[in-house]
Amino acid sequence: MSLDVVLLILRVVTGGLLVGMLGAVFLVLWRDYQASVSEVTGGRLHRGQLVVVASSDGALDTGTSYSLLPVTSLGRAPTNTIVVHDNFASQEHALVIWRSGQWWLEDRHSSNGTLLNGDTIREPVVVSSGDVIGIGQVQFRLELD
Questions:
Q1: Cα angle at 86 between 85 and 90, to 5 degrees?
Q2: Helices (DSSP H) in the chain: which residue ranges?
Q3: Which one of 61, 64, 71, 81 is least enclosed by Cβ atoms within 10 Å?
Q4: Is 99 left (phi over 0), alpha (psi -120 to 50) or beta?
């Protein structure tokens, strides 16, 4: 066997190993992605919405509803899931998160605080259907299916 044939065989084997390794990396990443999606949704969709029940200065229209995502952010910044056009709301004011089989409300160190049923929250708390969340001068009612 000539040197050229041996080098060709080594190149083909090396290329095959490289393609196999890339396939294995893709498979591992795909499985990790699927596991993350399953963990976030708990294996099923958890439906709910926030309904605007009070809003001063027309920051949001009363009666408007916003569907909840596994992580729903509220605040003045346009990057939030729900943009609250209220000068008393912080840029990134609060989060409503699906975690460990429950919905949680978390204040994001806002200037004016986040209210749950009229009380200021200081740490993440579990919320349930009918709870009223205050962000600035806007109030949302949590409705869960």
A1: 100
A2: 3-41
A3: 61
A4: beta
Residue 23: HSE in the Cβ half-sphere, 13 Å Cα cutoff: 6
Q: What is the mean pLDDT of each run of 10 residues along the chain (145 residues)?
A: 91 96 95 79 69 81 89 94 91 92 93 94 94 94 91
Query: Which amino acid, residue 84?
Result: V
Structure tokens at 41: 């949704």
Confidence (pLDDT) at 36: 78
Q: How far apart are CA 71 and CA 118, in angstroms?
A: 23
Give the pLDDT confidence score for residue 62 in this predicted structure. 86
Closest CA to 144 of 96, 108, 88, 112: 96
- Which letter does DSSP use for residue 44 in this model? S
pTM: 0.68
How far from the centroid of its chain's Cα atoms is residue 76's Cα? 17
Amino acid identity at 77: A
